[in-house]
Structure formats: structure tokens, C-alpha cells
Amino acid sequence: MMPVCPTPPSGPPPPIFHAARSRRYPAHVSKQMEVEVHARRRLVRAQRRLSTVAPKQAAQSVKGRKVVAARAVRTESEELNGKALMRSMANVEPASAEAMQALADALHNQAVRQFVVGKDARHRSTDALWYKLYLRMDSDGTGLISYTELK
């Protein structure tokens, strides 16, 4: 039975420019062979660079998409938990004690007008009025009153 692959010759491999350097070929053929070998080497170097650049570019592309997605999630999260609103109101001066008292009185009077009717008024506590007003204002049912719901 014959071997599938011939055994490699023993000894060091022949030099790359062996054919080009030998004097058996005319000078212009030797020069052309050297140019061809040089071009092949440049091609191999370019292919190696390309094989290392493509994975790096793919990784950068994936990383860029992940950064954009994370930024979108972060922005949405900040909108949901009110951080964006807090940042936008960072330079707003807080209301004075008199302004807060006036708002509380106005809300209380509105609660009394809307929820207390006739003889039922004496049986309602202030806490129940505030609770009913709160439930009415919390239109989305989150248990929190947002600035837009307060308007």
C-alpha cells in the first residue's frame, strides 16, 4: 500500500529566493520572480492584518450598539423614576411655607366641596377626605402623584 502523503525531505527547507537567485535564469526573469515573491509576501501580510482587524471592528460595532442600548435604557429608567424631572427642577427655588399652606388649603377646600354632601359631612374625617382626593388625583393608579397629575 502506498502512503497518502509523501514524506518531507530531510534537511532545512529551500530558501524562498532559491529560484530567483540562481544563475540558471536570465536576469529579467530573476527580477520578475523577486517582484512576484515580494508581492506575495505583501499580500500575506495584508491578509493577516485583515484577519485581525475584522474581529476588532466587529467587537467595536457590538460594543457601540450595546452602549446605545444601555443609554436608552438608562434614559427610560430615569424618566420612570423621576430623576430626569428632578434634574430639570434642580435650579427651581422651593416654595415658601406660605405658598405650601395656600396650596394645602385650596386642596382641602376642593376635597370638602367634592366629597362632602349634606348630612354626610359631619361623619367624614379630614383623613378620609384627603385619601379620597389622593385616589382621585392618582389617575394612573401607581400610588404616586406625578407633577402632571397634580396640575
Blueprint (SSEs and pairs):
Layout (H helix, E strand, L loop, with lengths): L17 H4 L5 H55 L1 H6 L8 H19 L10 H12 L9 H4 L1
Helix pairs in contact: 4-5
Defining key terms:
151 residues; mainly alpha; 2 domains; 6 helices; rod-shaped
Biggest sheet architecture? none
- SSE class: mainly alpha
Total number of strands = 0
Low-confidence stretches: none
Give the terminus-to-terminus CA distance.
Answer: 95 Å
Q: What percentage of amino acids are in beta strands? A: under 5%
| Tally of distinct domains | 2
Global Rg: 41 Å
Q: What is the helix/strand order?
A: HHHHHH
Percent in helix: 55-70%
How would you sum up the global shape? Answer: rod-shaped
Mean pLDDT: 77
Report the total helices: 6
Q: What is the subunit organization of this protein?
A: single chain
